[in-house]
Prior knowledge:
223 residues, 6 helices
Amino acid sequence: MTGNSTHRTHIGGVVSMSGSTRVAPQTRKMWWMNIMLLSAALATMLSGAYFLFFPGGFRGGRNPWYGVELLFSRTTWDNIHTWGGILMIAIATLHLVVHWSWFVRMGKRIISELRGGCGCMNRYGRLNLALNLVLGLMFLLAAISGIVLLFLPHGREVTTTLLWTRKSWDVLHTWSGTLMIIAAILHIGIHWRWITKVTRNIVHTAWDKEPSCSRMQQGTFSA
């Protein structure tokens, strides 16, 4: 058999073929999903930090930040936080559906680990699993409390049939969101090599398309 042979390897969703590198379609989809989730999370986090450090209300003249605007009006920040949170919930739900088989597999592995019948997870795997559980739980609490706050009437001492007052839901939302951010930063940290590798290859793939198109056009014109 004559001609060039193609050597293909798969490493973390990155396919290497004869010295060139491309990203597997499934990995590319997951990368874009994570980018959208990160963008929504950043918008929600920044707007949440605004409300945390620049509280509203006149408070009898005790609020030095009353009437102060930072880049946007308070209403705009509120809309950014609300729609960013809704987008996060939508993307996270899609993420759950797409990776449902992984969650089922991990659930079975956890049960087996707890029963002492597996022992197949190393320290890195346990750390990753613990972070995913904390991240998922905190996100769930932040999402539920955020939805409750969205539909509850305003007023810190408003009573509700949903267990607590608005102030209590606000505290839950704040701290679950804070812990979620910490867990997300750690999650990104332990996956940083994968993130940078896939991002670099996606950028290189997109960058290399332009020269190849230019070469094809030059070849057509020269012919």
